Amino acid sequence: MKDAARAAAEPNAAGTRAPRVFETICDQVREQLASGALKPGDKLPAERELALQCGSSRTAVREALRSLEIAGVIRLHKGVKGGAFIREGDPAVVTRSFGDMVHLGRISLADLTESRVILLDAVLRLAAERAREQELDALEHSISRTEELTRLNRLDERREQLVNFYRLLAQATHNEVLVILVDAVTDIVLKVLQRDGVAPRAETVKVHREIVHCLRRRDAEKAVLLLRRHFKALHAYLFEASAAQSGSAPARARSR
Question: Does the predicted TM-score (pTM) go above 0.70?
Fold first, then answer.
C-alpha cells in the first residue's frame, strides 16, 4: 500500500488538504477491491504490518478498520485465527445508508416517493419481459400471505411481507442493481409508514393481484398505470400522516 501518512499530508490538486490518514487507508483498501487485488474472503495484513505498509500509526489503522467494518466492507474476528476479512457484498448497507440520509433530512420524503415511482416503472417493464412463471407464482403466494396477515392484524409481519413482494418483483427483472435499490427504497417507505402509525390500505392486495395478472399477460403499460395510481394514493396518505405526526402542513408528493 502507499504511504498513507505522506498522502494525507500533501495538498490535493484543488489546493486543499487531503483526507485524514485513516480515510486514506480506507481509500487504498477500496482501490484494491476495485482492481481485484482484494476479493471477498481475503484477509488483510495484521495491524502492525498494515501500519508499516501505509507508513502510519497503528491507531490510524485501527480507526480505518473500524470505519471499513461500519461501512460493511470488512468483518473483524478476534482470537488466534482472527483478523480483518473482506466481506461478501451486503445490499443491506445501501438500505442503512439511504435510511440514515432520510432520517437526517438529507433526502426528503418527496424525493424518496418520486424516486420510488420512477424505479418501479422500470422494474415492471423489465419484469413484464423477463419474469418466469415460477416467479409470478411466488408473487401470487406473497400476496396471499399479505392478505392473511392483514386479516390476522399482524401488521409488522404484513409490512415485512410487502417488502418481500417488491423484492420478488425486482428479482423478476434479473437485474441485481434493481433488486438492491428496490429493497432499500421500499424498506425506508414502509418504516416511515410504521413510524407514523399509518394503517394498512385495503386496496393494496387487490392492486397487487391485478399487477401480477398484467405481468402474466406481458401487459407492462397496464401494470405501470395500476402501480402509479396505487402509489399516488399511498404516498398522499403517507404525507398526511407524516404531517400529522410533525404537526406541520402536509407536503405534496410530486406527480408524474
Answer: no
